[in-house]
Amino acid sequence: MSCPYKSGYVTLLIAVFYCDISLFTAQTDYAPYFYDNGPNSNNGNMALLNLSEDTPKGTQIYVLNGTDPEGQPVKYGMTFEPGSKEYFHVHPKSGTVTLIEELNRESYVCYEPQFQTTPSIVDVPENTTSGSSIYKVQAVDRDTGSGGSVTYFLQSSEPSTKFAIDHHSGVLRIKPGETLDYEKSRTHFITVVAKDGGGIYKGKQQVMSSSATLTINVIDTQDTPPVFVGTPYFGYVYEVSSPGSEIFTVFAKDGDMDNPNPIIHSIESGADGVFAINKTSGCITLKVYPAELRREIFNIKVKASEVSPEGKLLDFAVTTVTIRVVDLNNHPPTFFGENGPQNVFELTMYEHPPEGEFLRGLKITVNDSDQGSNAKFHLRLVGPGHMLRVVPQTVLNEAQVTILVEDSAAMDFEKSQFLTFKLLAVEIDTPERFSATADIIIHLLDTNDNAPKFSSDFYIARIPENSPGGSSVVSVTASDPDSGLWGVVKYSIYGSGADLFLIQPDSGIICTQPWASLDTEVKSKYNFYVKAEDTEGKYSLAEVFVTIMDLNDHSPAFNENSLEKTMVIGAPVKIEAIDEDAEEPNNVIEYSIMKSDPDDIFNIDADTGEIKLKPYIKSMDIIQNISSNKDCTWSVVVQAKDRGSPSFSTTKVVKIDITETQLKGPLTSFLLKSRENPMQFLGLVSGVIIIMVFVTVFISTVIYVRNVKSNKILPSRRIIRRKRKPWRQDDFHQPFREECCGVKFRNEDLEIPTADNINCNNNVKGCFHRTPPSPPDAPVMPPPLPSHFRHGDREWTVPTVSASVASKTKKRSDRCKDNPVNTALVSELKLRLEQKNMANRY
């Protein structure tokens, strides 16, 4: 432990004190303890004391101070390590410590705490009361001062320990409120940690500690009563029993298993003097003949008591033994066949019999010769699954046994070729529960109850294109668990995609037809069905998916239309090649310029095939300075190469005519580009034509609608008539009235047609819906001359109405009837004339 020395001083002290009664004479005693007044105090536990080594002998250096929890007086004392010099003396009552020897600092060393008795095993009776001290742990630290003081702690591995330790004295106790129980836990392990008071060691403040494991064995004590084993107890007296017959034996043992006491048995009550018990073995016997028993049931109280070594009765336990008086059951159930008792029955039958059918080949009878309840028993069939069921299930004396099929699917030859069942007959109400067993062995015969089954629902195969005819594609497998010829499988294929393939009927190997030619570019995927069929036509299907793997078997081919190009400076030209392989990278093309004259004039895009002039070539002057070719036409050797393995390539000569255009603008650029792609230009022209047609149709539709509206006759509406003005001399009257189809036309009294004849067709009678015309008026004076009248002109005369007018009107009316078209035109003209006259008048 650390040695907290200072120059010229020595720190030392291991001080203990003791009570005037022994610490270990009474388990309920609590140890006294020192007061801890700190390192700078001159009284207390003397845990840390600095003392100069030149202190003269006889000097009083400290006063020990402590107390006892029970209030008893304490005495002080001091112990030293055996063989060492005693430097101090303590007064037993006052605790005064006096130096009796000279000190020498150089004679001290540092020590760790050490347990004096480790490992320790402590035996503690389980009935030790809580709070009792059971052991004292002692550790010694030969350091001085605080480095030599020792305190104790518990470090238990159990979740909640039942023990506690005094930190100063090391006394180990059972915690208050805790008890030990041998039947629950026989051993406890605790770890005691001893720590010193700490000090300076090698320039650092350190605390030294040690630990020791303490094993506490719990000793069993007599605290558990006897225990009866196998309860409840039932015994029987039969008609053949006699005095002295053993009816039942009870068994009891001491509950304290580690140190059991002997057990004796006795009958407390209920025996009525007709039963006795062996006190040592617990065997109950009959004392009289069964005929002398007056009851059918006896409930006997049996007592089991522990006996101490001194012969004193200790704890006891009581149980009940029920004894029933019954008739003798001396015949077990027995199974019979056609020839007598039999315990093995065999049957051969086909698999999967109908459910509910009974097994006709089995003739089984069961019998119990006893009477009453002794002859009543259960029948039960024990075997794999729930395939069969036995009837009846309860039998009295005798019955014919019938086995019914309950699960036909489970009786499968492919799963098991024979089935074994146990037929049990067990008595119901007898204490003996006599029983009998018989084996039922069923040999199954196979039927064709399974269709072939493929190893997979579908098969996926890949085969390279151009594979020769007869190449293997995939092998399919199907199995039929049926036996014999029923298990033979034949294969066939069908489906729209099966034309190029054939299958070997026995092995299931699918190959291509001898004449088949597989080409990915023509068709890359096929699917069809394969059929597995047994000899009776039961079959199953699986689907086969075949993918034709593309091979690089085509070279790129240039579009011949793109081998002659006109290039405008600043615009690219594009060449195009096509690879007829179906998949990448076989059909991916890379373009390159193999040769051109001069070499450093063109660039080509490896992916798109666009050929451009070098960026520095911006005019024809530069081109003519580079080359002596004055016609500005170059032949460029271009290669198109695919990315397949192996790779194929094609080389063509592209003639490029270079020109310089003076046109500017986006349309010019578009037209130049359209030369490389005529379809683009054709699409533009088609779009323009479609737009023009649409505009034309729209304009025509608008004009048509407008014309229709302008030519439409005014809608029918009722117009208020103007009152007839009085006849005046200056009024102009029609010199005659004309009637056509019964209608009179008069300027002074114009009728507007109604909805009944919206076009005012004069061929329709009554179209004006007005009253008949009044008779003709007498002649009146002619109207005044118009403003443009010239003197000397002939004056108007008003003719009278004569028959000639009517005759003329009738003739016109007939003409209207004869020609409807003319009539309609005349009516229309008249209507417009009247409308015009009205407008002029108003």
From TrEMBL:
The chain crosses the membrane at residues 681-705. It is a single-pass membrane protein. InterPro entries: Cadherin-like_dom, Cadherin-like_sf, Cadherin_CS. Its main location: membrane. GO terms for biological process: anatomical structure morphogenesis; homophilic cell adhesion via plasma membrane adhesion molecules. One of its GO terms (cellular component) is plasma membrane. SMART domains: CA. Pfam families: Cadherin. This is Cadherin-related family member 1a. It comes from Cyprinus carpio.
